[in-house]
Each structure stands twice: as C-alpha cells, then as structure tokens.
Amino acid sequence: MSAKTQEVKQAFLDALSKIEKMEDLEKIRVEYTGKKGYVTELLKEMKSLSHEEKKTFGQEVNVLKNEVNDAISQKREELERKQIELENSLMPEFDISMPADLKRGSYHPITLVQRQCEEVFKSMGFAVEDYSEIVTDYECFEALNIPKDHPARDMQDTYYLENGQLLKSHTSAAQNAIYKKYKDALVNEGKAIKAIFPGRCFRNEATDACHENTFFQMEGVMVDKDISISNLIFFMKTMLSEVFQKDIKVRLRPGFFPFVEPGFELDISCLICGGEGCPSCKHSGWLELCPCGMIHPRVLEEGGIDPEEYTGFAFGLGLTRLAMMKYGVKDIRDLNSGSLKTLSQFTDDK
Ligand code: FA5
Fold first, then answer.
1. Would you place residue 347 in the very low, low, confident or very high pLDDT band (cuts 50, 70, 90)?
2. Is 62 left (phi over 0), alpha (psi -120 to 50) or beta?
3. C-alpha pair distances (Å), 236 with each of 121, 217, 257
4. Residue ranges around ligand 1 (CB below 6 Å)
5. 233-282: per-residue pLDDT in tens?
6. Which of 229, 293, 243 is nearest to 123 (CA)?
7. Where are the beta strands (DSSP E) in 108-209?
8. Beta bridge mates, 314
9. pLDDT in tens, 36-48
10. 146: CB partners within 8 A, 6+ apart
11. What is the DSSP string of 272-320?
12. CA of 245 to the centre of ligand 1 (A)
C-alpha cells in the first residue's frame, strides 16, 4: 500500500475510533467517501501515474474505499445497538405476568340521559332522528318564522361560518326537514308525525355554572289532527317522571319563541339546592329546562303541512341541563371538561 493511501487509512481509523454519535459518523462518512472526500480525492491523483501504476493504485484505493464503507456500517450498527440498550435501561421495569387492570370507562352522563329519553319516547311511538351540526340560515331561523333582521335572532348568539352557513344554535333547526320528511305519511296514511331529534348546539355564550357554549338539546315534535296543549303536558310529565323516577317540581310559564304560539317555559325546581337558590340555578331556585309550545301555523305551512287541518306541539329539552340535574353536577362546564376523574364520579353505569 502506498504511503499516501496508508496515511488516509490511518487517519480514518483514528477518527472512527473517537466517534460516539450518529451525526459525527455521518460527518466522517462524507469527509472520506463523499464527492470531495479524502478517498475520492486519492483517485484524482491517478492522472499523473503511468498505465501500470494506475492499475495497482486504483485497486488499492478501491480496497480502501470498501474497508472504509464496511467500517462505517459496523460502527453504525454498534451505535444503534448502544442507543437501544440506553433506551431500554431508561424504561420503567414492568412485570408482564401481572393481571391486566380491567377498570373500564363509563358512558358520559349526557349520553346516558339522552339514551334514557330516547327509550321513553320510542316506547311512546316517536322516531329518533339525527341532524347535521352545520345548518343553513333558512333551517335555523327563516323556516321557524324568524326572518332576517328579526330581533328574536338576538336570543341566540350564533356562530356564522364564512360560507353563510352556521353552527346549529338549537335543535329546532331540524324541524322543517322533519315535517317535509313525514308530511306525506301524515296526509296520505293519517300517520301522526312523532319525532325526537337530539343534537349538539353551539352558542357564543359567556359561560357560567348553567351556560355552556357547546351543549345538547333534544327537540321533539308531534303533529296530527286535534293535538292540544294537554298532549304536550302529558308527554313532558311522562318524560320527566321516567328520567328522574320520582316526583319533580316543575312550573309552566309563558315564554316567547316565534315558532310556537302559545309558547311556554318549563322550569324544573333546582335539584342541586332543593329550590333554595345556588349558582347552578342562578340563585332563582328554578332552572329553565324545556321550552315548548304549539307549533306556529306559519312553521307548519313552511314544512308543507296545512295548519287549518293539523296542529302540533314542539319542545326543546336542554339535555345537558337535564344531565346536570339527574347526576347532581353543580357546574355545567364539568360535563365538557373531558376529565375522567370528574366525569366518572357522576355515574358508574357501564
Ligand atoms: C330554544 O333553543 C328553542 N329552540 C326551544 C324550543 C323548541 C322552544 C321548540 C319552543 C319549541 P332556549 O334558547 O331557551 O330555546 O334553549 C332551550 C333549552 O336549552 C334551555 O331551556 C336550556 O335548558 C338549554 N340551553 C340553552 N342555552 C344553553 C346553554 N348556553 N348552555 C346549556 N344549556 C342551554
């Protein structure tokens, strides 16, 4: 081996023996075998050699090149092995023969109360419908007798999207589609429209113990000939007694919603404070739970139903507040907290 080749080889071996990190290994790989590396540069020296010398020197440099590449590969494997050993030594020891912790998660209190309401209404012949969370201005307002610029729009701080659609601010936004879906069966087969549609609602609210910006409602409608307020009260009472399994104090008072006439607010005596007044009920002893009323003739008409022939009721149950009352959750924001520690204490149902 020529002195020059020997010199390059020795320098390489010295440098390699000091390498401890992958990035340094990469550096010397480039330094020796890269385009302008020491080994590559050796080949350029062949220009000045005779034909015979070129042959021997060329072979010599190629051998060196292979040795350098092999040594680098070996060093890489060694460094990788050391890295794995290091990571393993940092891992906490665990016993794979230990029995698994079989503690399972639980359903969210809102899911439980929603399912319970669905069962109650299904048993009374109501269909359960699902609806989009993004709706049009028509669905959310205009079809509900709330024209553009009507002051009733201020009752709901709505999130508008850039394309003019909006995040559903109440489940009433599905009413029009439900009427249109079932109106033919109502008219042609005499089948009453009976549907509930739970869903997530969004409002740009200042949050407090009983207000969230994202909450659940469950809308219910029934349309047929001769539907009256007594039907509405019957279904509300049945639903509440089934959910709470005990007598609950409620009050019905007039309420204004452009899509019902007459309209009511159905309040529940606060179960957190027993009606004494606390932050959960804004210190009033009562919690607004389920506004309702007789569907406005214009809303029926917009849904393709003749208000001269048919009447109906609608309600908008605050599901999140119902879950608060049922599970004794003092602050509504806990229900959206995502904290398993908080949520699992409200229910151990699986
Ligand atoms: C409405 O949303 C009407 N669409 C309800 C309705 C339907 C009336 C059909 C008549 C006929 P309101 O904005 O009051 O109404 O909301 C209804 C219920 O949803 C409230 O009583 C309350 O229980 C719940 N709710 C409203 N806003 C919030 C909020 N920010 N956080 C938690 N629950 C809320």
1. low
2. alpha
3. 10, 14, 18
4. 170, 172, 203, 205, 211-212, 215, 217, 219, 257, 260, 263, 288-289, 291-293, 314-316, 318, 320-321, 332
5. 999 999 999 999 988 899 999 999 999 999 999 999 999 999 999 999 99
6. 243
7. 127-128, 134-135, 166-167, 193-202
8. 221, 293
9. 899 988 888 888 8
10. 152, 153, 258, 259
11. TTTTS--GGGTTSSEEE---EEEEPHHHHHHTT--TTT-EEEEEEEEHH
12. 23
348 has a pLDDT exceeding 80: no
Q: What is the DSSP letter of 211?
A: B
- Strands 166-167 and 193-202 turn out to be unpaired
Count of Cβ atoms closer than 10 Å to residue 78 Cβ: 12
d(CA 345, CA 341): 7
Q: Which of 141, 321, 332, 334 to mutate to test the pocket of ligand 1 (most atoms within 8 A of CB)?
A: 321
- Cα 156 to ligand 1 centre (Å): 9
Strands 260-269 and 250-254: antiparallel
pLDDT digits (tens, 9 = 90+) for 135-184: 999 999 999 999 998 888 888 899 999 999 999 999 999 999 999 999 99
Residue that is written with structure tokens 């021997």 in the block = 56
pLDDT digits (tens, 9 = 90+) for 273-313: 999 999 999 999 999 999 999 999 999 999 999 999 999 99
Mean pLDDT score of the chain: 92
Q: What is the pTM of this model?
A: 0.73
CA gap 344, 109 in Å, rounded = 9
φ/ψ of 295, rounded to 5, equals -60, 130
Rounded to whole angstroms, how far apart are CA atoms 150 and 118? 33
